[in-house]
Amino acid sequence: MFLKMLTAPIAAALSIVAVTLIEPAIAASVELQGAGSTFVAPLVNGWIKQFESAQHDISIRYEGVGSGEGISRFLSRSVDFAGSDNRLSPANEKKIDGGVVQAPSTAGMIVLAYNLPGVNGKLQLPQSVYADIFLGKIRTWDDPRIREANQGLDLPALTIAIVTRQDSSGTTYAFTQHLAAVSKAWSEGPGVGKVIQWPNVAMLARGNEGMASKIKIAEGSIGYVEYGFALRLGLQMAVLENKAGQFITPTPESGAAALTPSVDAGLETLEASTINPAGPDAYPIVTYSWFLLYPSYPAEKARALVSFLTFAYEEGQNSARYLGYIPLPEPVVEQARAALARFGKSAEASEKATVAIGTVVESPKPEEQKAPAAVK
Hints:
Elements: H1 8-17, E1 30-36, H2 41-54, E2 58-64, H3 67-75, E3 81-84, H4 90-93, E4 101-114, E5 124-125, H5 127-135, H6 144-149, E6 161-165, H7 170-182, H8 184-188, E7 202-205, H9 207-217, E8 221-226, H10 227-232, E9 236-237, E10 239-241, E11 247-248, H11 252-259, H12 267-270, E12 286-293, E13 296-298, H13 299-313, H14 315-320, H15 330-346, E14 354-356
Parallel strand pairs: 1-2, 1-3, 5-10, 6-7, 6-8
Antiparallel strand pairs: 3-12, 4-8, 4-9, 4-12, 10-11, 13-14
């Protein structure tokens, strides 16, 4: 059984993350429902498939409906957990009795994917240029400012068609946070949000998958999508200027370099540390994605959820890179575990059958087992 196959580090992590999983096994047919970020959906659904193949007693469903809709379902308690590409606001946190457990699930790059047939080579976009493209100030691909940064490319006199999200999107939030950091005009204009009133006529699409598909068929288009979606569809991806003035290609290495400044940041400031990351090798647009969890659950759901979270923080991080995501740095994983434990200690179960995330619950057994030691 999956639980008996847990390695020592994984088992140790359980004592920090939540309830200790001790035989007897989780009752059959425990179901968990999740919804939210499309950015992270391929990874979470990949984790679910791997997890369920080893743990047959738990069924998990995750719908990629966008961070905004996921948060709405979470606040209405119509799901067991949500995925979001930005942390829940303090105002929304107060809507959940006992607080909200917010822990990063993974990280990833937001790329500017484009469709320019016949344009070979790397398209370089300075920060001021790509901000002005989305502001509608640069309208053609042969604009002098684009040509100046790409003197070796034969750029067409083609109208730029920007592709943006129609739904309430954490990817849009992270992207506009970055634009506001690099462009005063953006900060004072459209601003930051999950839904933006774009200043230029834009083609709208739902989800990262919809964005990538629209860019693939629309000649002259450019849009912001998660790296893995662009990679799987073979889209052209721009080389972007970073804070240090270097032009950086989106790669697993440049994405990991972008997370370096955040490893010592607390979870509350983790999001801010990646808005426009420093470092000569850092890709400039990255975001963490988050699990949103309640402070307590019915006992069987708590055990099932902890089992899945343990998988996500161990084997799951190892598989993230194969789908184009950036595995969480180990210090961030440890902070996530500590946050889950801290919330659990302060949460009080509202029913006898409810287990607070972070508490240790031992099932009766003739030969008692001790909970594994905490990871330091």
